[in-house]
Amino acid sequence: MMDLSHLVQPDIGQPARLLNLVDKAGLAAWLASAPPRVRNHLAAMRFTARPHELVVVPGDTADEWAVVLGVADIANLRPWCLAKAPEILAAGTFRLGGDVRPGDAVIGWALAQHRLTTYKKPEENPQGSRVLLTGDPARLPDRIAEAEATAWVRDMVNTPAEDMGPGNLESAAEALARRYGATLEVTRGDALATGYPMIHAVGRAAARSHAPRLIELHWGREDHPRVAIIGKGVCFDSGGLDIKSAAGMLLMKKDMGGAAHALALAQLIMRAGLPVRLHMLVGAVENAISGNAFRPGDVLRSRKGITVEIGNTDAEGRLVLGDCLAKASETPPDVMINFATLTGAARVAVGPDLPALFANSDPLADGLVASGRAVGDPCWRLPLWPGYEDMYVSDIADIGNSGGAFAGAITAALFLQRFVGEGVPWAHFDTYAWRPTPRPGQPKGGEALGLRASWHYLRGRYGAAG
Fold it and tell me: Is there a smaller number of Cβ atoms within 10 Å at the N or the C end of the chain?
């Protein structure tokens, strides 16, 4: 597990450079109180305090320089407000000017300095890190935990499929279980055929080294409320016999992004000691092509007993999740949340920044949306519109696995809902798990979308709020 705690430290009066934050509303007043040389320098640099606008202000000597950084709202610092600064500044220690506390912005400060370096050395080799001092250390461990969980999602999604196959997901879950005293159960290969037939069908064409598996982690006291967290772990998606194009296959290492979210959320729950009975499930497969691959036209019998006609082998994630949702519902949880990189239709609907959220419970959906808005991890609710259920009908099976040309994200969510136990409050995140263009603190590549929203919702519901 990574450690980002050294990047943000409690302020106990250490020597540090000044990092002044200014928003547009307060710029005139701030300039009026600044020394003339600072005002003149900022005027020459045409500083307007727009978000992420950074100017280094020289001091009387070479070692006395300070920084001025524009933010959107100095009274409400969001996670990415400070993230541009550590991407630009030289190594050193920095303290915010005035009576300003960074709050959630420490998350972006830390993440701006994290990169996966397994395959490529960093572009620079700084002599040290950019350390931010904070005057509100009480919440610091919680925020660093969120930054580390986000970084873990990014690293798992960015790792190539050869090094992040079903076995690697199992190893990650095993390490997590050891660290927090959880119990791990894994059903692998042909042992899935009777209990989890859809997971088995999707993954059976992969090489033996990438055999499919259901990974289950149990943690917490039996008398605590049950929380089920489920992740789609398609470690590479060729599309199966309905093969993807080369362009469509290029990013399919990220198709296990739902599993990465589930593992990271489980870590946050256990690390905080949340008073819940956690049941985490990951269906880990590779959707490969071989002589025993499942075929268009096949009819699969699911764990729940529902028969599914395969209209498209590239609609495989919902099959994997269906067996997972059925298993998690057998001992009904108090709440169930799943994460999946499920449909391109969700990206068309809400773009790459927002995970599409579906839920069968208005209070659950409202809580997740509100939590996401509060912590800068927004999501957008789409409807489980029952009028579209006839889009995935089958002539010979209970349902089909593909929903036609329209409302693909909704029909996929409706398919999943068939496998949710009656009366179980359930939320489904159709998340991209990827950032196509870089932003401060958010480099191009794997991304956690919906993770912090879910964590803060669960923490507010079962543990200490805030």
Answer: C
